[in-house]
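Attaching the record inline, Q. Sequence:
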Amino acid sequence: KKPPLVIVKFFDEDSYEYVKTWTNIYPYNCDKKNEFIKKGMAAYRAKLPHMEKFPKDVLKAEEKVGGNPNILSNPMFLPEKKRNYAAEIFGTPSPKNSSSKSKKRSNTNKSSGKKDTSHITHRRFLGVDDYRAYICIQYPGKDRIPGD
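Structure, as predicted:
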C-alpha cells in the first residue's frame, strides 16, 4: 500500500483527506477552479454526506484569497434546468378548471329538471330511428351452373 504524500484538512471538516499522487493537488486559484466548484456543488445538491460543508468551505477560501465572497450565486454554478422537450414539441397545456365547469353543469341539470342532451348526436339515440332492412337476392352469373 502506497503511503499518502499529503494529508489535507478542509476548513470546517472533522475528517482528513489522504492524497497519494501529486496530480490530485491543485492550488485554489487555478484554471480548473470553476470546474471543481461546479462538480462540488453538484455533489452537494446530491446530498452526499462528505459534501455537507462544501459551500461554506468555498466561501471561506474566497475570503482568504481575497476573491468574490458571492461566487456561488454566479449563474455558472446554479443547477442546469432540464429542457422540457414535450412542451417544446406540443406546447404548454392550458390549465383546466374542471371543478368549476362540473359544478356549473351539475347545478344547471338540477335546477332546470331537464336532461342535458347536447352530447347525444346520433339519430338512433335521439329516438328518430328510421332504420330499414333490405334483403337483396344475388342471382348466379351467366357462366355458373346452378347446383354447383
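Helices lie at 33-45, 54-65, 85-90, 98-112, 123-126. The two ends are 97 Å apart (CA to CA).

More tomorrow.
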